[in-house]
Design a protein that fits this description.
Elements lengths: L1 E3 L5 E4 L11 H10 L5 H4 L5 E3 L8 H6 L3 E3 L13 H25 L13 H18 L10 H12 L4 H8 L25 H8 L4
Parallel strand pairs: 3-4
Antiparallel strand pairs: 1-2
């Protein structure tokens, strides 16, 4: 397990751990925090927020007891088929920020040795090898996120969208368009206007990602 910043730099490397029912993401994180592996608690400063996925949900109690704030996509409630608008917006807000974790793992797997089944005889050295890879990535790879002239506008748009109502859902409900039976197949050539073409600027504003 690796801890990374939101810009893609690897802060700490933990493990390896046995892979079984007792060693899921949440239990590993709890064990790491309680035992203060790699002085991780000293690396977390006031107002820092850990961005986690739903697999870490069972560690929230321990993190809260340690005074650590967490951001995580929300879960559906009992008998709930989909999230309400605000919960969905908050979950997207978190997802926008945590794509970096998957990208860092992808960078690690570009090293051939880590992109294959590792023999048991190498397990004692796995952490040393991945620490070497982490150091190389931190030193020679560019940051996942770099400052952009559009950063302020992106932040403004993210905060605006976070509190925005789902206008499409309201429209469908108001006009009773939520039933599948009322929809018909339409030939794209018979549309009043062609499908809009999006520029790279449009795509960036829609996805809030990096180019």
């Amino acid at each position: 397990m690796v801890a990374v910043t939101t810009t893609g730099y690897i802060v700490s490397v933990f493990g390896p751990f046995f892979s079984d029912n007792s060693n899921n993401d949440a239990s590993i994180l709890k064990h790491t925090m309680i035992n203060n592996y790699d002085d991780i608690l000293q690396r977390i400063e006031e107002n820092d927020i850990l961005i986690l996925d739903r697999g870490f949900r069972d560690s929230l109690g321990v993190l809260k007891s340690l005074g650590i704030d967490v951001a995580m996509p929300l879960f559906l409630g009992p008998k709930q088929n989909q999230s309400d608008v605000q919960d969905a917006n908050n979950s997207r807000f978190v997802t926008i920020l945590r794509w970096v974790v998957a990208s860092v793992n992808a960078r690690i797997k570009r090293f051939k040795w880590f992109n294959q089944v590792i023999p048991n005889s190498s397990l004692p050295s796995v952490r040393d090898f991945i620490c070497i890879v982490a150091a190389l990535l931190n030193c020679f790879h560019v940051s996942m996120v770099t400052p952009s002239p559009n950063d302020d506008e992106t932040i403004r748009r993210m905060n605006s969208l976070r509190t925005q109502n789902n206008t499409l859902q309201i429209f469908l409900t108001d006009y009773n368009l939520t039933r599948n039976s009322i929809w018909n197949v339409t030939d794209i050539h018979n549309l009043v206007q062609s499908f809009p073409k999006l520029s790279m600027v449009d795509l960036r504003m829609i996805t809030l990602g990096t180019s």
